[in-house]
Amino acid sequence: MTTDTARLSLADVVAQHARSRPGELAIGDGDLRLSWLDFDRRVERCAAALSAAGVSVGDRVLWLGQNSFRVQELLVACARLGAGFCPANWRQSAAEIAFVVDDLSPTVVFTQEQEVGDTVDAGLALADHRAAIIVPHDDPDGGYGAWLARAPATEAPRTGASDAAVLFVYTAAFGGRPNAAMLSNRAILAQAVLMAPWMGVHAGHRYLNAGPLFHVGVFMENFATLVAGGANVFVRRSDGEDLCRTVETFRCTSGYIVGPMVDAVVAANTGGRFDLSSLRGKRGHPDYDTWVGVDDSPWGRSPGGYGQTETMGMQTFNLLADRDAIGTHGRPSPLVQVRVVDPDDREVAAGEIGEIVVRGTTVMNGYWNRPELNAERARGGWHHTNDLGRYEADGTFTFVGPRTRMLKSAAENIYPIEVENALRSHPAVADAAVIGVPDDTWVQSVKAIVVVAADAHASAEELIEHCRGRIAGYKKPRTVEFVDALPRVGFAVDYDALDATFGGGNYPGGTTRST
Amino acid sequence: MTTDTARLSLADVVAQHARSRPGELAIGDGDLRLSWLDFDRRVERCAAALSAAGVSVGDRVLWLGQNSFRVQELLVACARLGAGFCPANWRQSAAEIAFVVDDLSPTVVFTQEQEVGDTVDAGLALADHRAAIIVPHDDPDGGYGAWLARAPATEAPRTGASDAAVLFVYTAAFGGRPNAAMLSNRAILAQAVLMAPWMGVHAGHRYLNAGPLFHVGVFMENFATLVAGGANVFVRRSDGEDLCRTVETFRCTSGYIVGPMVDAVVAANTGGRFDLSSLRGKRGHPDYDTWVGVDDSPWGRSPGGYGQTETMGMQTFNLLADRDAIGTHGRPSPLVQVRVVDPDDREVAAGEIGEIVVRGTTVMNGYWNRPELNAERARGGWHHTNDLGRYEADGTFTFVGPRTRMLKSAAENIYPIEVENALRSHPAVADAAVIGVPDDTWVQSVKAIVVVAADAHASAEELIEHCRGRIAGYKKPRTVEFVDALPRVGFAVDYDALDATFGGGNYPGGTTRST
After folding, report:
1. A415-502 domain in CATH 3.30.300.30?
2. Cα torsion for B357, B358, B359, B361, to the nearest 10°?
């Protein structure tokens, strides 16, 4: 008999809402409406079915489909059992899906026939790992409903601890392969409790889960809505007409509707034929903004900050700083400590750039199945973000950019992104990268490789002079090469190719300490 | 080397504010003003001094004085070390203080000469336990300042885990002696993060710690202010003129000013000679309310709920229910589950009364030095509150009263407080208690012992009839005895004496399952 009186999992939150708000709406999806009591009972059946399939503490369940209320149901059922649930990226190739299947080695896999079925099936065929059960969730006959109906009538175990990893999200493909960040009930619920009032999320809130559920950014408001006892509403994918109809049907008060999804809503809502007036959160689009109201919550007025999947989203919040703050990314959440450190893990002074390291309630349990990477990234008890940041004199925070590798000029550390940002601020520069070339006196000297904008001109001397006023003297390029385009691997600059072409080398600690 | 990347203690929160808000006010006390950077450095010295005195993980530090910023400083320093800090009730007798000293067996004790010195010294003399160091904190020569100045220059350990018990508060004197509830960093910080936005507490907040710091009620807003980066301001005790002057000096935005403290402020502020206009939170006193502003935060509009020291204050919040709710105590916090159970720990249906049991993030680590009591109170993984409550049909919650003991009528459970509340609702009843007398058929029958109000009259029949419409028939008294006064031990009715006088007995499971 456990005596863990401090335990709180996602399943416990749902069980409590079933007592406190039994008849209020918890879940909406198409024609489906579940009250908190309905949802709690379904979670109970779902946990019993997973348990019967062999899912126990520490096991994994994989979702290879698009958005559905079943994602929420399976996640909460896994929380109850102490298992992990991974909603994988359904935009991946068959080979990428096969990697996830083999890496995660799930006990149960849910697939989807509609739209992604062929790729998912090919991925499963490519993988070596064989799950105990594969459920094609949208099969009208043998799918999710039938699977749930077969669940045994016995009560499912309640073995999920607060610190148990429950949400697995693949991210951080530093070494060319992604790693699954393991987020605990503790991290998820703490972030949700923190953000709900800042987002103006209360029991009457209805959040449209319109972005893909393999992103923590979509889950942040989902979890805030969950803890507040509001309703989470789902659409399978970001189809404009489907979004509009769902907002109208459920009177959604907010939604993850950004970028091209705004355009899709505008295209679908010609003549304002759907009633979107329940929504809050204008998006800077003239049509869209006539249909929706203003979000005057603190987050609505000052959204964003610096965050990572590995910390259940935000580590710093813009809303924690005034408009006249020096830093561009607010201040850290009260749930974490954020330090900026040099390569020897010593905290640097305000005004200096270093790697961002973090510890606290919202930090992940580590990456699944990556003991060596975890030891490296969690060294000294701090999660090393692989990102660069800076505290300003007023205590506010600036996220500088991803930490790729470091250059050395005598004793001084130089991060390429700092120099590149200075170069890019010149109007004639379209793109820029910085490498270190061996230097007998200074260890390395800084070389810039620059793409000049069409119809623009800039000399090496002019660009070096431009940098002089913007960054410390030792950081400015000593030499500049001009190219038509930078070599890239995917979106990332291929620094190895630049080194090979332009004589880079002598990097401190090899090329980088990250993996 | 620890890899606890999830760690967050009170000391970590202070260290983070020293980065994010270095120059902003953290502490005010008399002429003393400490910025977050100042405060963090003092905590560092304080932790080094405690460590040098032998305080390590799991050890205790006792404060036998009135309010002071040093309470906050020692508490945070203990959090850093992983030790526990107890601010004891300075209104206690010497014998009561001696009990606390022996029970807590602290490594370091802080005493106060002013006002309480004689009693504290007598208590220490009575106790068997001898602390390693006793520091008379307000001694101008050999006191706290001198003690801190002697701290070694070495860095103090940072060994405080999130789950470490850091605040010890004596409460729950069920068995005639008080028990120290051990509250962890986790419980304190989660409650503070939850409550800060509800209380409208932000970085500009300045909270006057005017109530005694041996009560969790005073600490709730203190901790909310701490996590938000606001300032905690201290007065030694609730002296009216001192309160007014401190509010004016520090422009306090709120304060623990309740009951007779409001009258003391009114008496001290004749002619409105102090500027109290920074304060928010009217108190229903005509003069007071002309000086202070309205608190329009959710908590200000709907304060309170049901809580306990053992759960870092509130378990339910009135602000989570509408005005037309059936229940009188809102809904549970998202940080806990609250169940209402029968004596066999089975959850009862809405509308039924049972014992309130709770589990979740804000629940204490148990009582210090009470293994048997802890096993009993935490049975099945739920903290048993010894209080009675009820869920209503709309999911809202009602706190009924303390669970003293239970009566039995055939298979039905009867809690005396239910019957006593029904009796007290009769205008002629000044006081009432209910006992069970052995009954061959029904196990027990209900007997009421009633004190009639001065100049009032009521017959036994009339009172029984009064109860009939208010509680279930099996709960109403079968017999009524009239007395001039109820026997009491302290504030509590002496049920044992009533049983002896009026033939009580046959209680299920002895008299009570609580200790």
Report:
1. yes
2. -160
